[in-house]
């Protein structure tokens, strides 16, 4: 009698009436969480087909952005490799001899923003050229080597603007005839990747909202079907958190289930596409494997989907709790 | 225990459900609230339960102006009041045991302690043997007793009842009222809204009569 007595102030009632110690309150809280976690799972299992359909809807909403994200991830890897190979070719003037070329190479190497240089003397250039073209005989007949010496420069920062600045700088050095940089295709690729990642982001946001709506709608119906129960427990002193809890767990279960299904679908999808992709890559003389989610990616997918489910449930229940007032 | 100071409740800006109510209920009292349906009995109880706030005046319970409770405090306030409803508001998909255990579950009472208290409450209303039954398997009078067990399982110091004998025959009604008297005897303040004058005049407790939202008589126990 005494603990729950109304004579205590509401504040006091709040701290004392709930249980004698924080420890027991915490235990009670944990007990309710455990109970609701299991209870909500049980409710989902009671209607396996309906639950599965909801999860499938979530999974489908997740698969597309996840797949796009994977594709972009591999594109980014490719891009990084290409950047590595973003080099400038500095052609030296014809009258520059080998010793001078060596000095110019050193001078270029000393420039700020230059990571590495490789000097290709006129003779080496000729040899490479002959080898590449298989024109040993024809070129051998030339009296003079028409090729200039050149320096291949690897910039520290492969960003196009920087590379262009660097080119400008090198152009003005004495003994330099011409600086070649072919960045247009690299830039195009970069723009494409940027476009792709924005599309992926937009799709991710849209489909994430889709997941919220799917879960929200399902939870809304669940709240509606348990309206009487909610009213009763609120009449006898349940907090909003208490009422919300089972629904939040349902939402999280839906999200997790949807995430697992999406994970499975991605696996099946990449398995299904693996053969044609590698065949295609082989025809270009490349080896390319479809990217896999990996442990971190899988964890991210499942955590995101669970959180989305939880959030969707939160929104739906909170909206509803404001409406439900005990009669 | 309960103090009404010039309390008025107006709905929709025009209709006065309650007007200028002024009374107190002392700790340990048992009070009947009577009047025709629509006289304002339920509205008055709703004010005490803090389901609504008065549009005028103050309602004090245990010295606190309950209109000033923050929304987050209201659940904790309600836990200290036992309420019995006319339609008993039992959860139909749960056993009698779990219905009675609900307030304890909400308060996070440890399960073993909860079981002890639920059985004590069910024993008190004479339904211990039906603890596994579902509400639908019980008669109207039994359902109402389950509602009472749920209201008292928390051992509240204030017990409210809104037409607890509304649908019951005279004998069952008398049994239910006797139960309330038992709780009152151990110190619980009890406020019962009822229009069953024949029954409540016989019981000789204080009676507050409402008519059109006004207190027209306050008859002390004879």
Largest sheet of chain A: 4 strands, antiparallel
Q: What distance separates the N and C termini of chain A?
A: 27 Å
**Helix proportion range of chain B:** 25-40%
- Shape descriptor of chain A reads elongated
Largest interface: A-B, 36 and 38 residues
Could you give the order of the helices and strands of chain A?
Answer: HHHEHEHHEHEHHHH
Q: For the CA atoms, what is the radius of gyration of chain B?
A: 17 Å
Estimate the mean pLDDT confidence of chain A: 81
Total of domains of chain B = 1
The number of helices of chain B is 7
Give the helices and strands of chain B as they follow along the chain.
EEEHEEHEHHHEHEHEE
What would you say this structure looks like, in words?
The complex is a heterodimer of chains A (327) and B (222). With 327 residues, chain A is an alpha+beta fold. Chain A folds into 2 domains: 190 residues, no CATH class; 96 residues, Alpha-Beta Plaits. In chain A, helix 3 packs antiparallel against helix 8. The longest helix of chain A is centred in the last third of the chain and has 44 residues. Chain B has one domain: P-loop containing nucleotide triphosphate hydrolases (Rossmann fold). Chain B has 7 helices and 10 strands. In chain B, the strands form 2 sheets. In chain B, strands 6-7-8-3-9-10 form a 6-stranded mixed sheet, sandwiched between helices. A 4-stranded antiparallel sheet of chain B has the order 2-1-4-5, covered by helices on one side. The radius of gyration of chain B is 17 Å and the shape is globular. Chain B starts with a strand and ends with a strand. Chains A and B meet through helix 1, helix 2 and helix 9 of A and helix 2 and helix 3 of B.
